[in-house]
Amino acid sequence: MFNEQGEPAEVVTVGGEPHYVILEAGFRRHVTSEYVDRQVLSWLQEQISANQDLVTEGTMTMLGQDDLFTKAMIDASIKNVEDLIDQGLPDDARTWLGMLGFSITVDIHGDVVRINAPTGDLEE
């Protein structure tokens, strides 16, 4: 997670709720992580849904499983991404996305302006 100047956003807890700290000319703006995470998860869900067959096949290949039950479990998991939108992005998922090469750029209000995916930049 980065601001528009490429500075990383820190994650802090305020009142028991995680927030991203977005820097703006020395000022620390706090935006609830839920607000940003919902935008990212919605984008991920759109990408996965648009490529569901490819995602399912790739996952089955990666697992070394090519049977109807595995396909049904993977398809059900893909549909459960919607549940994550309600819950927010877990900390481990943020780390995992970063390790895969994703970076998110947000403006000072926490609106996603760019998602840098391993396959290239995508403007919001």
Number of strands: 6
Largest sheet: 3 strands, antiparallel
Seen as an oligomer or otherwise, the chain set is single chain
Structural class determined from secondary elements? alpha+beta
Helix and strand sequence: EEEHHHHHEEE
Radius of gyration, CA atoms, in whole angstroms: 16 Å
Widest sheet, order of strands:
1-2-3
Question: What portion of the residues fall into strands of 2 or more residues?
Answer: 25-35%
Mean pLDDT: 82
**Overall geometric form:** elongated
Span of the ends, CA to CA: 15 Å
Spans of at least 5 consecutive residues whose pLDDT stays below 50 are: none
Structurally, the number of domains stands at: 1
The proportion of residues forming helix, as a percent range, comes to 40-55%
Number of helices: 5
Question: Please, could you describe this protein's structure?
Answer:
With 124 residues, this protein is of the alpha+beta class. It has one domain (34-123). It has five helices and six strands. It has helices at 33-50, 52-63, 68-79, 81-87, 91-99; strands spanning 10-14, 17-24, 27-32, 103-106, 112-117, 120-123. It has a three-stranded antiparallel beta sheet. A three-stranded antiparallel beta sheet has the order 4-5-6, with helices on one face. A hairpin with a 2-residue loop joins strand 2 and strand 3 (27-32). It is elongated and about 55 Å long.
